[in-house]
Design brief:
- The protein folds into three domains: 4-286 and 346-427, no CATH class; 292-342, no CATH class; 434-496, OB fold (Dihydrolipoamide Acetyltransferase, E2P).
- The radius of gyration is 24 Å and the shape is globular.
- It has helices spanning 4-12, 18-28, 37-44, 48-51, 109-117, 133-139, 181-188, 196-200, 204-224, 254-276, 292-301, 312-325, 330-341, 376-389, 398-431; strands at 59-60, 66-70, 79-85, 91-98, 121-122, 127-128, 147-157, 163-180, 235-240, 243-249, 281-285, 345-349, 438-447, 450-455, 461-466, 476-485, 490-496.
- Strands 1, 2, 3, 4, 7 and 8 form a six-stranded mixed β-sheet that branches. Strands 13-14-15-17-16 form a five-stranded mixed β-barrel. Strands 5-6 form a two-stranded antiparallel sheet.
- The protein is an alpha+beta fold.
- α2 runs antiparallel to α15 (398-431) and α9 crosses α10 (254-276).
- The two termini are 44 Å apart.
Length: 500
């Protein structure tokens, strides 16, 4: 039975085809929203037995208590984790990454499609996978109970949270439990029951608690080194029968922190191993903020003094203080800082080159290698590490990596634009029959292009078309909805003055 809001959407106006809007938006930003018949035939013709021929000499790690933590609806499982307590209070971590390269040869039709799109795109309305679902959610996914080939990265986490890089090798693995972020976090925080898998699989509770201990060490170390604790709000559309029923915010939690910390460390180990091999590599970087002077001004406006030169530790302390002082407006402050820092980039690094580093993560050697079902750069890194392990030459030249980096950086930015536009379009659909209603909101941006706000509920963003003069970022105001346009992603408000 549909909720009243859904019924109103169906009866007051003709429904908006958000999937069609998503397809058009994908094409507008240069993506191929559908797979060609050639790609689909190529995937259907994959012979799994033939693909793994010659892999028998690799390690068999199916006996370990591997588990994955992901979103409830995720089937394209890229990584599984396992750790154990070692001597001197060290913790050994193994991260197994799906061997996607095994089924996607370089230069194949599937590879060319993935290279063109560069990434999976998550619009909330529809997911556009980088690889056909028969592959990313089937053959190459680390689904529970399935024997899979993987590239395993090892590292040790010391008591102070620092890491010691370990081996990287190919192995046969088997996921024992597919866990969900929200369920694991609710249990760990005492807000929900123990998940069935954790309760029934011997040793899994101890394994997860050890993973929490490990992640806390890693995070504390990164924060001490100046990692930025940023918290931006990205509302996802909830769909029911093709109708937008709500906007929900993905909140940070303990389980997400486990995966984030494990993957940051694994990516650092991969970057180090490839550099040690003396071959051209790809680095994922965030440069020192180009607009640091504006960040300094922002801090001064909030009573905080930042140094004149970029300093991640100082910025980290400022952000932590603001999160404690004003948690409601912290996501909007985070978004402002993200914009002023500049986007992440992929850059080539020649043999024995000097890494630029990732300003936001407070790490020097970093790449992307842990999500080959969803990101193409991870497939490139997988091919390169496998070549190193086999004692062969790099499958990519420095010039080729340079052109790939430029293209994939552009695809990353374009994917963010698609996802951002579709969040606005979905919000416009949800609100289109609420014209004239008054909402509480936070001012999120004051620029030459206009003044923007985010509603407290639902968390939709829009532009203040009248009464915007004198408003400041972080200010809480009331606004009246003037109009919406799902096809342009517009939501327009007017400021409502409070009665005295």
């Amino acid at each position: 039975m549909l909720c009243p809001a859904c019924f109103i959407q169906m009866t007051r106006r003709p429904p908006v085809d958000l999937v069609a809007i998503a397809d058009e938006t994908m094409e507008h930003y240069g993506f191929s929203p559908r797979f060609s018949e050639g790609v689909l035939r190529e995937v259907l013709a994959i012979d799994e037995d033939a693909a793994v021929t010659g892999q028998e000499a690799l390690r068999d790690l199916r006996g370990l208590l591997w588990s994955s933590i992901d979103n409830e609806d995720s089937m394209d499982l890229d990584q599984i984790e396992w750790c154990e307590q070692g001597p001197d209070n060290e913790i050994l971590v193994k991260v197994a990454i799906a061997d996607v390269d095994l089924f996607v040869p370089k230069g194949s039709k599937t590879d060319r499609h993935a290279a063109h799109n560069g990434t999976s795109v998550y619009t909330g309305v529809r997911t556009y996978p980088m690889l056909p679902v028969a592959l990313s959610e089937g053959i190459s996914s680390l689904l529970p109970g399935q024997d899979r080939w993987a590239v395993v990265t090892e590292y040790s986490v010391l008591p102070d949270g620092s890491t010691r890089h370990g081996e990287i090798y190919q192995a046969l693995v088997c996921n024992k439990a597919r866990l969900v972020y929200e369920e694991i976090s609710a249990w760990l925080e005492g807000a929900g029951p123990i998940p069935d898998a954790v309760r029934t699989i011997p040793g899994l509770e101890e394994q997860i608690r050890l993973q929490v201990k490990t992640a806390v060490r890693l995070r504390d170390r990164r924060m001490a080194r100046g990692a930025l604790d940023l918290e931006t709000i990205e509302a996802r559309a909830v769909m029911e029968g093709g109708i937008v029923t709500a906007l929900v915010i993905q909140e940070e939690n303990i389980a997400r922190s486990i995966i984030e910390e494990f993957m940051v460390a694994a990516n650092g180990t991969m970057a180090d191993r490839l550099e040690q091999a003396g071959i051209p590599t790809i680095q994922r970087i965030v440069r020192e903020p180009k607009y640091w002077d504006r960040i300094v001004e922002l801090g001064a406006e909030l009573g905080w003094r930042l140094p004149q030169k970029p300093d991640s530790k100082a910025l980290s302390r400022f952000l932590a203080s603001r999160k404690d002082a004003d948690p409601d407006s912290f996501p909007d402050l985070s978004l402002t800082v993200v914009k002023l820092m500049g986007p992440g980039e992929y850059v080539p690094l020649g043999p024995h080159g000097i890494p630029i580093g990732h300003f936001a993560l407070a790490v020097t050697d970093y790449t992307h290698s842990t999500a080959p079902n969803r990101r193409y750069v991870d497939i490139i890194n997988q091919r390169m590490i496998k070549a190193v392990l086999a004692g062969g030459e790099s499958p990519y030249t420095l010039d080729e990596l340079s052109s790939r980096c430029e293209w994939l950086t552009g695809r990353d930015k374009a994917a963010q634009k698609v996802e951002r536009f579709m969040r606005k379009a979905a919000a416009a659909v949800l609100l289109r029959d609420r014209t004239g209603e008054i909402f509480d909101a936070f001012v999120t941006g004051v620029t030459a292009h206009g003044t923007f706000v985010r509603l407290l509920s639902p968390p939709a963003e829009g532009k203040v078309m009248s009464g915007e003069h004198g408003l400041a970022v972080g200010q809480k105001i009331r606004v009246r909805l003037q109009k919406t346009d799902p096809y342009k992603g517009f939501i327009d408000f007017e400021r409502v003055r409070r009665k005295r």
